[in-house]
Amino acid sequence: DAKxxxxxxxxxxxxxxxxxxCNHSTISGTDYIHWYRQLPSQGPEYVIHGLTSNVNNRMASxxxxxxxxxxxxxxxxxxxxxxxxxxxxxxxxxxGNEKLxxxxxxxxxxxx
Amino acid sequence: xxxxxxxxxxxxxxxxxxxxIECRSLDFQATTMFWYRQFPKQSLxxxxxxxxxxxxxxxxxxxxxxxxxxxxxxxxSTLTVTSAHPEDSSFxxxxxxxxxxxxxxxxxxxxxxxxxx
Lengths: 112, 117
Known about the structure:
heterodimer; A: mainly beta; 5-stranded mixed sheet; B: mainly beta; 7-stranded mixed sheet
């Protein structure tokens, strides 16, 4: 599986934007970039995913570098409820390599 | 988004006994379900992939005779931890995959915390 690299932890002030980086230099052409987050004592929650173009949804935005070797998850206005571990995961589109393999993620702390 | 439930949410059992955890997709049919395990302060580790009507595929290092997985219907998969020991105490999370028009999405259950005494 292609690997991703994320900072272990980040802090942000409440109501400020947050940019969570992810490096995936070995990404293949058919790998989708997925972001999940996990709140304490809960299962992971889908945040967003993309392939080549930037993506927006009600939770966040995903900015994908032109060479696809990195991406950034953007929370436009962080709240205390956004404190979680954020996982950047690559997933293949072909049958047999669709497993989601979790790395260590980034633990996001929101400062009131 | 799609909803995945797990039951029970917490279970305490004695060493040597077996525990069954259920995973249900509530509003969609899931041909594939996944079971993960998470120890404190660690990331999720995939244990096995379960396809409806067929045997589960286990990840390297996961004992298939200890962690029995049954996926008898499109909405239910079960994980049975047999002869549980304290080192099996962990947070067990299931996930169900749904096929979309051009991609797949995967949704996770809330997890089951198993404590073996």
